[in-house]
Amino acid sequence: MSFIETRSLTKIYGTGETAVHALRRVNVSIEKGEFVAVTGASGSGKSTLLHMLGGIDRPTRGKVCIDGIELFASSDSTLAAMRRQMIGFVFQSYNLIPVLTVQENICLPLKMDQQKPDRNYYNELIELLGLGGKQTRLPGQLSGGQQQRVAIARALIARPAIVLADEPTGNLDSENSAEVLRLLKESVEHFEQTLVLITHDNSVAEQADRIIVMRDGQVAEDNNL
Predict the structure, then answer these.
(1) Is the pTM for the entire model greater than 0.85?
(2) What does the DSSP assignment read for 11-33?
């Protein structure tokens, strides 16, 4: 069994004539440590697929298994705990809390589980992502590229096995986009994590180990690079 696997994954929004088939019996297998880019036009189902892999949204039918564990066989509370402990999310809009400092934003997933950060690991993340000297600043005092670095650190702080990134460079200029992608790749390689990244940018997708192209809620292409 692959590390991440979907089986006949189907998601339908609405009913009757207004029903939208966001995913249509999608079967995807991803190995541990793999960097997979998911591309496709708007409405192709790529973000819906990412949300299913992360347990954010429940499928209409089908299964998502991570390391042999079926995500949606769990209760909502158990699923929420699994998300915090196994999966790190990086979003296009950063989703930082404006009244919390950089350090507080990064450590928030641990605080929600009443845990304290491993100080050595925290310092390693700060150094790797170039956030030294910025831990006491608020998000509004940072550039877009710096905010996305904080979002990456927050995604990694709980040592998740999987990092899911939804258009992480979408709000950045080309220089910051290249830098954030480099840091994201270095981070997941350094900590031996699996990365699934949604992007519209072919130059970003081409840096992955593999590209999955979505079309009309289905996998249209699956190419190893």
Answers:
(1) yes
(2) EEES-GGG-EEEEEEEEEEE-TT
